What we know:
Elements: H1 16-19, H2 28-32, E1 78-80, H3 82-90, E2 95-100, H4 108-117, E3 121-124, H5 127-133, E4 142-146, H6 154-164, E5 169-173, H7 179-191, E6 196-200, H8 209-214, E7 224-227, H9 230-239, E8 243-253, E9 263-267, H10 276-281, E10 284-287, H11 299-314
Parallel strand pairs: 2-3, 5-6, 5-9, 6-7, 8-9, 8-10
Antiparallel strand pairs: 1-4, 2-4
Amino acid sequence: MMYAFMNVIVPIALDAERMNIPLKNNGFNKRNSDSSDNYSRPRHKDYGGVNNRDNKYNGRNNRSDNSPKMAENEPEGLIVGRNPVTEALKAGKPIDIVYINPDAGGSISVISRLARERNVVVKSVGAQKLTQMCGGMSHQGVIASGACAEYVGIEDILAVSRKKGTKPFIIVCDEIEDPHNLGAIIRTAEAAGADGLIIPKRRSASLNATVFKTSAGAAVRLPVAKVANLPAALDKLKKNGVWIFGTDAKGDSCYNVDFKGAAAIVIGSEGFGLGRLVKEKCDFLLSLPMNGEITSLNASVAAGIFMYEAVRQRNGL
């Protein structure tokens, strides 16, 4: 799947001085230095020119047959693979039964012992049975059954930074439909120290077995909120003092923006980028330098670059 940014020019720097947008050397950190848990921020202003999006991108009903599709026949309530199952057990996630293939060797015995220590039933089955259970996924000799998807609220994500005593750092995915991409983004977000991730209920991959497997267990560590209205969720973040950083090919370079304050990075969908309403809610748009013949990146790769530029700045590197 390719990650294509929308070709819309938004005048980010035009009102930067007047609106105190957090461009570098613009006093963003100073503005937040006296704030409380609510991280004071100026009132959001809709930027002109956002509605001049090309007609072919007005709405999500123009998806072609080549659009990315969510995996069908996903095994429900299963956590598949050694790392995901191990992390789920360590995190105390609700698990009913752990199915193992004793002949798989390696860390299977460690997983079995860990499950029994947590009073989880362990059943020995053959490799063929495991393959049937997970629909042919790479199970590595172990599958756990239980509550695969466990979502939180936006307030729970905001509470993470308050507990840590840091400024919020949140990742938002706008209709990432490929579960492999979502799993990879979750893995990077957890490694980068994000407080949580927000996804929409419609046209988005959910916390299924593929996402758990691809995230290498990070999906059980990173709080994920699933919301009915993503633009409204962004409004709620802004009311709590969080700056909304959208991603767009014509946006300002991500290396010219200050991520040290309360920040949420919004990653657009594969092939379609940010939706119109979501883009309108962004305080400003960011881009990555593209110096080769290829002009787009995979969604999870682009997300990782944006996240680690934020990490670099927030860690004072």
